[in-house]
């Protein structure tokens, strides 16, 4: 794999900005799943077109069912949360249409940011009275730290996968040896049984 492409993919993970627009059918649910590392800040902004008599709920949950954001009958807003642990998070939009209505299709716009891009460096610069160059250096420092952390995480995953592969290979080898021993034992038993049978019938000496 080309190193520039690999670095570009890693940079996308570190300073991830996702923007998308999708349609939400009446009384349907659509979710966006994303893996987030521990301690990473996630921010987002969404907007849903309004339709008479219809509502849209929005929520953010993790794989354990814990709610980080829960908003009912919403059409637009912003949200933010920090991942307590490495997990897969779901951002869901749910259409609510009364049973006596023929609902229409919503258009949903969603933009999420995580990592360095989710932080407000302008506000940090104003609070700490930093110059624009110092703010940019702070952003680059955080970006470099995020890249190092992602490299460490990828290396850890690689080691775990290698250990899993080695363990699987060892189990397959032991199972193959056990199967071979069973087959050899069965073949030996068959030969001895047939030899005894033929002797009892006086077909062989």
Low-pLDDT runs of 5+ residues are 1-15
Number of helical runs? 3
Mean pLDDT: 81
Outline type: elongated
> What share of residues is helical?
40-55%
Strand order of the largest sheet: 1-8-3-6
Structural class: alpha+beta
Order of helical and strand elements? HEEEEEEEEHH
How far the N terminus sits from the C terminus, by CA atoms, comes to 70 Å
The biggest beta sheet is recorded as: 4 strands, antiparallel
From the alpha carbons, calculate the radius of gyration and give it in angstroms: 30 Å
What does this 3D model show about the protein?
- With 205 residues, this protein is an alpha+beta fold.
- It is 43% helix and 30% strand.
- It contains 3 helices and 8 strands.
- The strands form 2 sheets. It has a 4-stranded antiparallel sheet with strand order 1-8-3-6, with no helix packed on it.
- The protein is elongated, with a radius of gyration of 30 Å.
- The N and C termini lie far apart (70 Å).
- 11% of the residues are buried.
């Amino acid at each position: 794999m080309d190193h520039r492409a690999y670095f570009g993919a890693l940079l996308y993970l570190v300073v991830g900005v996702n923007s998308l627009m999708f349609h939400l059918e009446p009384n349907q649910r659509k979710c966006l799943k994303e893996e987030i590392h521990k301690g990473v800040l996630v921010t987002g902004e969404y907007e849903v077109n309004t339709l008479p008599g219809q509502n849209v709920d929005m929520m953010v949950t993790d794989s354990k069912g814990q709610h980080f954001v829960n908003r009912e009958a919403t059409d637009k807003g912003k949200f933010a949360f920090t991942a307590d642990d490495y997990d897969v998070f779901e951002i869901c939009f749910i259409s609510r249409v009364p049973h006596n209505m023929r609902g229409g299709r919503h258009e949903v716009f969603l933009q999420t940011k995580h990592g360095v891009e989710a932080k407000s460096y302008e506000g940090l610069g104003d609070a700490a009275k930093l110059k624009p160059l110092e703010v940019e250096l702070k952003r680059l420092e955080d970006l470099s730290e995020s890249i190092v952390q992602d490299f460490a995480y990828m290396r850890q995953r690689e080691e775990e996968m290698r250990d899993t592969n080695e363990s699987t290979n060892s189990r397959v080898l032991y199972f193959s040896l056990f199967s071979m021993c069973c087959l050899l034992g069965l073949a030996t038993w068959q030969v001895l049984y047939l030899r005894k049978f033929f002797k009892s019938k006086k077909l062989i000496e």
